[in-house]
């Protein structure tokens, strides 16, 4: 067994022990990193040490969107320290570091490699074990979700009927990929449209926009960072479909709104 096989075995054991999907473990790790970095900026720099273990575990788990979202939004916490030009430099450095991780760590490289394959950007075809990955699975799901929404744009199909509507659409694919599990829409924005149509999506986007407005008005960079982090995660996951997702979102938003944790835009 190679070293990386042992790593994958370790991560599998962790997810089985916690009985949670990798994405939710990754979100929890990202929140830990956000709060550790914020405390290191507002209180003691020693708090940065508490972010190392969550970061290492996150890289081992190699959840693509969680890693991308973290590297995009985490630099916002230091916006008050640098000028705008230096801040842009930090963003670019963060993205460059992400590229280095993608090409240097085998487990992360393997997760990102299939994004370059043509088969990735069309719905899956054939047997579950052949030519199928997590991305083209989502492409097939989003095709179905968009098709259902197109036919029911105003009020959706209802919370009760959304899953059965998706599963009926999956039967149109020449694949066994969707046979073993009930796959939801894997997109919180599409989920809003499926469940209750355009009014629901407008309400959901209004909540996100209000949190962004409050974070800017109160100069709360932690709230801004975490809100934007979840906004990106909503693109690939139904965070509110599971209780742990609702908990992490509420936990992150509520704690970041506390004045004691605020990171000011002003010195």
TrEMBL record:
Question: How is this protein situated with respect to the membrane?
Answer: Multi-pass membrane protein
Question: Would you tell me the Gene Ontology cellular component terms?
Answer: membrane
Give the domain of life: Bacteria
Q: Does the keyword Membrane apply?
A: yes
Q: Which Pfam families does its entry note?
A: Wzy_C
Predominant subcellular localization, coarse grouping = membrane
Presence of the UniProt keyword Magnesium in the record: no
**Which InterPro entries does this UniProt record tie to the protein?**
O-antigen_ligase-rel_domated, WaaL-like
Listed name of the protein: O-antigen ligase-related domain-containing protein
Q: What is the lineage of its organism?
A: Bacteria, Pseudomonadati, Bacteroidota, Cytophagia, Cytophagales
């Amino acid at each position: 067994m190679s070293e990386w096989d042992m790593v994958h075995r370790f991560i599998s054991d962790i997810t089985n022990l916690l009985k949670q999907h990798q994405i939710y473990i990754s979100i929890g790790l990202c929140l830990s990193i956000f709060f550790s970095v914020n405390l290191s900026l507002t209180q003691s720099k020693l708090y940065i040490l508490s972010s190392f273990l969550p970061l290492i575990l996150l890289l081992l788990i190699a959840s693509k969107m969680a890693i991308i979202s973290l590297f995009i939004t985490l630099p916002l916490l230091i916006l008050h320290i640098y000028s705008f030009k230096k801040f842009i430099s930090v963003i670019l450095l963060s993205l460059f570091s992400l590229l280095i991780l993608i090409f240097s760590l085998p487990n992360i490289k393997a997760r990102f490699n299939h994004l370059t394959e043509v088969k990735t950007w069309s719905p899956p075809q054939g047997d579950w074990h052949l030519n199928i990955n997590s991305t083209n699975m989502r492409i097939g799901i989003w095709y179905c979700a968009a098709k259902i929404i197109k036919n029911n744009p105003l009020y959706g199909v209802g919370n009760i009927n959304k899953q059965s509507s998706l599963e009926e659409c999956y039967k149109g694919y020449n694949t066994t990929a969707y046979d073993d599990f009930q796959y939801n829409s894997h997109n919180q924005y599409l989920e809003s449209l499926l469940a209750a149509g355009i009014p629901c999506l407008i309400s959901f986007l209004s909540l996100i926009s209000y949190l962004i407005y409050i974070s800017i008005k109160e100069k709360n960079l932690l709230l801004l960072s975490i809100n934007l982090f979840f906004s990106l995660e909503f693109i690939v996951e139904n965070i509110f479909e599971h209780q742990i997702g609702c908990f992490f979102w509420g936990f992150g938003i509520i704690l970041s709104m506390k004045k004691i944790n605020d990171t000011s835009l002003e010195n």
